[in-house]
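Predict the 3D structure for this chain.
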Amino acid sequence: MKICFIPIDNRPVCYSLAKDICAIDESIELYIPPREWFGDLKKTAHIENILKWLQDLPPVDSIILSLDTVAYGGLIPSRRCPETLDELRKRTDSLKETLLNKKAKVYAFSSIMRISNNNYNEEEKEYWADWGKKIFEYSFNFHKFGKYKTEIPQEILEDYLNTRERNFEINKIYLDWQKEGIIDTLIFSKDDCAEYGLNVMEAKELETLGGTTKTGADEIPLALLSRAIKKDIKVYPVYTEPEYKNSISNYEDISIEKSVLSQLELGGFKIAESYDAADLILVVNNFIEKQGELVMGWATKPFCGDFFAPQKPYAVADVRFANGADIRFAEELLPQINQENFYGYAGWNTSANTLGSLLAGVKVRFSAEKYNEKAFKRFQIIRFLDDWAYQANVRGQIASPCPIEELMHPYEKKLKDIFGDFASPKYTYPWNRKFEIEVNI
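Done. Predicted structure below.
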């Protein structure tokens, strides 16, 4: 199977993770543009290079396409770039012509511009440092009550609303493409959602027009990769806290159970009616009432029971905490891992991020024509080193990006006892911040 994959940006979870997953099946030919062409926290992608690369691409079966990359230069530039609607239309017209010529199935996603509830402008326009919380407040109350007085300066509010309107109009263009048959699957992502907001209003209008919206963002290209692989797999979700599966995750607007079912549907899985009827068990380490958050220091009750790994194929979504593993649960799981029936672990960022990426790995391994066990082990070692060792343990011990090889060594040793020996990893900070590391093996 030949797959073209154009990610959101150059972060490991957006770029490298797709390569790691596809490597599990040697029959997959993955076409992906050079990493240096993609944007980061401050740099916009080389859009013209990517469009030319796509035009010159040999015939493929599927194109997994992050539309924000080719329209704005990436997910973060979609909130910042100053280009007008007419300028963006010219670019999307060029993309449309290219897709028409490719004759491949197109699985695409575009973001509904998020509204973060903080005064942190690392990923937003400069004025977010002073007015971010006020803009969130305006958005929430305008949706809830229909009007709202605000102290936000008029020129800042107008700029923000104009940017939203521009992006919304571009999303409606993509919806027309889907109706014309150019895009086979089109997803509009809802990132950092609340119950009310301008983004929620836009999502509802897109749904009214026939569009499909999903909670999440970074994982959606991987979920679309999973969807592109046509293999019927019946999955039965099992929750460590079944009485709390209706609780809502941080940064999401739906319950953890609905998030699980949504990600399974998007990834092209079937829901098994019972444990015995399932091809694979999806173990969800969910939270009691409120999801913890390791980055923000929000506590929740960790897993405190006894975990017994299923005897049939299973994968584990560790979502008790956002942005890292539940240490107690991970340490229960690790000694029980058996290479024959273990199909993957993830515990990074949001619940949707964890679920979508985990299920992509499951789909590739389960349907692999040429299964590469070494690639699967490497993929899992990286996830445990990132989600469990770094995010849940080591990250809290450092004040800023710094060498962590010594701190990571005890966790590497534990993983070698399970997965076998591997070369000493190198750890880097791709965006020069603690939030994400890259594990190089």
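The chain has two domains: 2-225, 230-440.
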